[in-house]
Amino acid sequence: MRPDATDARINLGTALSHTGRLPEAIAQFGEALKLDPTSAAIRNNLGNALTQSGRVPEAIVQYEEAVRLQPDFADADVNLANALTRVGRLPEALERYQTALRLQPDSVDGRYDWGLALVQAGRLAEAADQFERATALAPNNAVIWDQRGVVLAEEQHLAEAEACLQRAVKLAPRLADAEANLGQVLLLEQRPREAIACYENALRLDPSLTAVRQSLDRARALVGR
Hints:
The protein has 225 residues and is mostly helical.
């Protein structure tokens, strides 16, 4: 490889990232950046590799520079927001998600991640709105339906929550969390027998769910089993 082969270093760094060889990937992206220090794409790639390595504060520096260099780089904005969320800088993160979604309103990942950050901030109604928009964009994504159902349940919109969780279970019958969350909603709706079936399904899929086992015991107690 020629020392000035920027694209080759980017491609190698990407391949190394995909195979989990993150220190080598970081080194390749760093070399590429020396050759092209104004590339927002390289800085975003480097930020991703740093994030995967747990070096989130360093990743934030790279994402910030990426969006400074290319203000319409929505993916870098989402990555920056995710990194800010991970280090507890929620107000800044929420602003970055808003910027990213203005640039790319059809970003499913952006809306889902923004919703998760809003949940952390305790802004559940706004989170539910983002998950609703995300399910409209990706109607076959069971994970988003599941999360939407969880937030609606926390907001005490139980009928809507049940519908979302039923959709998640139908789309992904092996998604243990969705079965467990549906069980919780059914229990809140005073339907313990149906809740029991969901809890049992969840535990068949993932026997390590200790909290679900406890919920199952409570539901069985309610029906005298």
